[in-house]
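Dear support,

I submitted the protein below through the web form. The confirmation email said the job was done, but the results page showed an empty box. After a refresh the structure appeared. I'm attaching both so you can tell me whether what I see now is the final result or a partial one.
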Amino acid sequence: MITAIDTSVLLDVFGADPNFGPSSAAAVQACLAGGSVIACEIVWAETTASFPAAPEAEAALKRLRIDFSPLDAVSALAAGEHWRTYRRAGGTRERTIADFVIGAHALAYTDQLLTRDRGFYRTYFKDMRVIDPGQG
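What the results page shows now:
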């Protein structure tokens, strides 16, 4: 089983979020016990921004056993199509295309996505299994 992980879950774990940290950490460990966990370059970049320096972020991701998985052209094109659908449906600019890249990458390369942003991904990536660590 391959799981893609979203930035929200990593920030819960690395930031020791009092509300979501424990359930997110448990969900990451459960996904690792069942296979591998990957993150695309968007998630790595967003996560790195919360650390004092890139080497510290990379070391933390490696300690957690999160593998880097780069985007390809097919996923990038799919992200653009999902973004267009969102915008045409009246979506606001609060969502960035990065969310669509994360979703398209997860849909193309994994069996499921571990994220706290359940409603958004369930709406725009209907064929993807979504795991929300806050939902038990």
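Response: this is the final, complete result; the empty box was a page-load delay. The chain has a mean pLDDT of 91.
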